[in-house]
Amino acid sequence: MTSTKHIEMRGVRKTYPFFTLDDLSLDLEPGQIMGFVGANGAGKSTTIRLAMGFIAPDAGEIRVLGRAIPEAQAAAKRDTGFVSSEMRLLPHTTIGWHMQFIASIYPEWDAPYAETLVKRFNLRPAQGTSGLSQGEQIKALLLLALARRPRLLILDEPTNGLDPVARHEVMSEFMDVLRDDNRSILFSSHNTVDVERISDRITFIDRGRLVDSSDKEDFLERWRRIHVQLPANTALPELPGIVSRVIDGQFVTLTTNTFSEALLALLGNTVRNVQRMSLEEIFVANVIRHREVRGQ
Amino acid sequence: MNIVMRKLIAKEFHVNRWIVAGATVGGVLSVLICALGKIGFSVGSLMWMTTIIANGVMLAIYGVMNERKERSMLFVLSLPLSIADYVRAKMLALALCFFIPWLAATVAAVALVLAMPDIPNGLVPYAVLLSVYMLANYLVLLCWTLHVNSEAWISAAIVLTNMCVSIYMFVVGAQPGLQDHIWGPVPVWNQTAWTILAVELCVIALAFTLPFVLAARRRDFV
């Protein structure tokens, strides 16, 4: 694997006694914001820990910013910011101490931007870390990651456990960060609303397997829910790309992942309504279909 | 040693500053209490041992176990360093955090024995051996704590290493080569004392080196 991709995973496998992340291949291009969506226990955090070099794969290859992981993780992490909802600041210290600590390690530390973030997140540098709420911890960790201007941001469920106001503040900051075209972001979450808001590419993962990966717009364009009313004694014709059908007498609800005008033409005047699907609906339909295909 | 490792060592001193300062003051204070007559000697020597042991236990708990448990380890591991760098920095830093109060307590204890006419100078080898043993004991605990993830195994190691201090005092203190000279007027460094010291130093070298070989090569660290 030799590429300019910010994250590249090929055939990655990681086995635990009760969970296996299997044959995972993933690409994150420079400037891309990938929403990594999966239910709890789907393998999001395992994938991210593999990318950060905290754990080593049993098989497959991982490269982050062109560096082999976990072997060259120190070099890769120099330009990678990582924030996780499970992460905590060091005890018996203050936010200000952390800012100095990070500034002393990263020459790229942007002090004026850090000050802006302190104000924007309403943080107090003199405040001890032990008294911080979950929201303040996450905001402080984001500040420390963002103010060193990394080329790659890896965010593991950063909005988990935040109240709506804190979540809004954090998401707004992301929107600002996204204006930098050279920075790429891997953003894991089970909250599809957050992911839909900021991502330009979406990857679904379920039970340790990659389910689907595509551009956000592509997902939103391809997936539709079509409500059909069939005349009496008429069977539904054979249709391509139908992932589920729910029949209630004459009324049929079809879900497709390859929506086109041609499909509508096949259904003719039986079509009563065509609905766009939200990312959450697409995610759920995708996962259910994936489980059916795999017989799970 | 790269800059991140140096910063991590400094960070360890900062985070554990109260433990290090408290243990240093406690160790010296307990030696001063030893100078206050027979009861003072009993109370002070007990305090002296407790201070050194407690320092080690607290550093293992707060420096390694809690960092893992409270997930601030994820923050540290996100810095530009390898797992091996993390283990090296942790081992060096926590060894130093223990070493400073330990050295102060040991030097103070030896100085007290030599300075006080009521305390026989023959105690010096025993005090030094006991002190070096407690250093070895701590490094074994630290080595174990860095190697295992289980809180239960770490707690078991803490209990076991604590018990071993009493056993050591009983067994080593009963060695004829030492027992015969403890209450004597001059320190006697005979073959028994040197052998025990050599064994202790070997354990120290092994416990200090093992994490660099084993824990630093662990494939999964969280």
From the N-terminal CA to the C-terminal CA of chain B, the straight-line distance is 24 Å
Number of domains of chain B: 1
* Strand fraction of chain B: under 5%
At the fourth level of CATH, the homologous superfamily of the largest domain in chain A is: P-loop containing nucleotide triphosphate hydrolases
Give the helix level of chain A as a range of percent: 25-40%
Number of strands of chain A: 14
Mean pLDDT of chain A: 90
The biggest beta sheet of chain B reads: none
Element order of chain A: H for helix, E for strand: EEEHEEHEHHHEHEHEEHEEEHEH
The run of helices and strands of chain B is HHHHHHHHH
What is the helix tally of chain B?
Answer: 9
Low-confidence stretches of chain A: none
Structural class from helices and strands of chain B? mainly alpha
CATH class identity of the largest domain in chain A = Alpha Beta
The whole-number mean of residue pLDDT values of chain B reads 93
Shape of chain A: elongated
Q: According to CATH, what is the topology of the largest domain in chain A?
A: Rossmann fold
Portion in helices of chain B: over 70%
What is the multimeric organization of the chains shown? heterodimer
The radius of gyration over CA of chain B amounts to 19 Å
CATH architecture of the largest domain in chain A: 3-Layer(aba) Sandwich
Write a structural description:
The complex is a heterodimer of chains A (296) and B (222). Chain A is α/β, with parallel strands linked by helices and 296 residues long. Chain A has two domains: 7-215, P-loop containing nucleotide triphosphate hydrolases (Rossmann fold, 3-Layer(aba) Sandwich), CATH 3.40.50; 224-276. Chain A is built from ten helices and 14 strands. Chain A has helices spanning 44-52, 73-77, 95-105, 111-120, 134-146, 164-177, 192-198, 216-222, 261-267, 279-293, and strands at residues 7-16, 19-28, 33-38, 59-64, 67-68, 80-84, 152-156, 184-189, 201-206, 209-215, 224-229, 242-248, 251-256, 271-276. Chain A has a six-stranded mixed β-sheet, sandwiched between helices. In chain A, strands 2-1-4-5 form a four-stranded antiparallel β-sheet. Chain A is elongated, with a radius of gyration of 22 Å. The mean pLDDT of chain A is 90. Chain B has one domain. Helices cover 80% and strands 0% of the residues of chain B. Chain B has helices spanning 3-15, 17-34, 37-69, 72-77, 83-115, 123-147, 151-173, 176-179, 191-213. The longest helix of chain B is centred in the first third of the chain and has 33 residues, at 37-69. Chain B is elongated and about 55 Å long. Chain A binds chain B through residues 49, 52-56, 70, 73-75, 77-78, 80-82, 84, 86-93, 97, 101, 104-105, 141, and chain B through 3-4, 7, 11, 14-18, 62, 66-67, 70-72, 74-83, 85, 219-222.
